[in-house]
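Two proteins follow. First one:
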Amino acid sequence: MKKILYLIIVLITFASCGKLEDLNVNTKDFTVVKGEALFSNAQKNLVDQMVSTNVNNNIFRFFTQQWTETTYLDEVNYDIVTRTIPGNHWNTLYRRVIMNLNDASKTLDATPVLPQITGETPEIRQNKMATIEIMKVYSWSVLVQTFGNLPYSKALDIDNNPLPAYDDASTVYKDLISRLNAAIGKISLVDEGMGSFDNIYNGDMTKWLKFANSLKLRMGMVISDSDPVLAKSTVESAAAAGLITDNADNASMAYLSDQPNTNPLFVDMVASGRNDFVPANTLVDAMNTLNDPRRSLYFTQVGGIFKGGIYGSSNGFSAYSHVNSNMLEPTFPGVILDAAEVEFLLAEAVEKTFNVGGTAESHYNNGVKASILNWGGAQADVDTYLANPNVAYTNAGSGATYKEKIGKQAWIALYNRGWEAWQEWVRLDYPIFVAPATAKSAIPVRLIYPISEQTLNGDAWKAGAAALGTEGDVVTQKLFFDKF
């Protein structure tokens, strides 16, 4: 009898504990996050990082001297270690973008397709998976082009590989092109994709296909000096399949009017109340010389003229032109790939005898046109500008070589797209920039690895850095694709 009574007391106690524990559970919270939501979060984190102006995260506008600083001059003098800039760029792309995308694909893969209940068909699911993969490839390509060798094949298997080895950058890049081709092959144009969870194309797979092909074009041109055979087949197949050649198809993030979903420019330059940046004289003077119609769209005037702050020096904020107010709107779109960039890549492809249709001049002109119109200029502005002997492609005044011609106009068109402008400069070596006398180094052609990699993954870091080249883990070490 005592045993039975004891058993009853124990059962009642456990039941009571279970009820008490239930009180600590928020029944309104999601227990499983939808794969689509993870994708949306990763997409925003990616675009935020690529368009950010925060000196802790993104200082690429300084590398190509499009902007300069007013008071704190570390970053414009190529000091990337006082702040943990490489680590923040690395961690954002690995943790907040690629890991989320990886979890998104895993979650969707584990979720049954139930057309009669959710309306999602196998074709829609396949489009969703293809969209995630395209974003993964984009993110990985940014990392490889920024750092070189890096953890890749074992990078996301934290449980089994907490200290992943560094993979060869060239090998990774080739694998990314293969992955991109596979994702492109899975797209169904008659079905939707991520729908409202997609803040760039709203699930429009026709536009995603153009984006994927345009990314493929870019990646092909990146390796055009290091692997011309693969580059040729990659570029030509991308061009034949359809690219972003209209501003309506630009890969552009739709931001909202309220934080935390505003454009990072608004956060860094308006909400912060700080006056840290002005356009640099390097860019402003070049555009003044060309009487460029985009000056009034890029900058404000001071004293009736466009005047850039002296790059690398202390600059009084009120004494120089400022970023145009249209860029400071909270809803100003964040662009990661556009028609102007595509056209300049095509112009370069023609010069390298790749079969992409058109002429180098026609694509160059289209790139200039797409940029001017996208920023709010008129066709008359385009015509006048291209008639300028110092702009016209066939005139020696616009540059003695195609690299000079394309490099200069791509640099101007990629204003406010610091990472992309920097990458084009790394490949083309134009325009020619002069580092400030107080610079910590020559203009970086890569970012160094995060300090955390040296301390937490030291053996892999040493091997990966040594394999980069004779200079190792420094900002002047050219990467595998940078042959000239």
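Second one, unrelated to the first:
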Amino acid sequence: MFNPNEACKAQAKYQKDNKVPAFSPANGRCFSCKKNIYQEIKKMGSDGIEFSTGISVESAGNHLITSCPHCHRSFCD
């Protein structure tokens, strides 16, 4: 499920619970591509197959986010 507000909260909780640094932007917007990392964006691959990028609520609550799923820019640099 993609829900930017809930995913942002889930990531903040994951960081706090696991005592890990906050690399992801607090507002969810990538500083490089300006897209919300928690928003699902559908794309078309060069092979003509549609795929999605974005971080779901479930993923945000279970993994430390260190880069943008859309442009792949690292938040750790």
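SUMMARY FIELD: The chain has a mean pLDDT of 96. The first strand starts at residue 41 and ends at 44.
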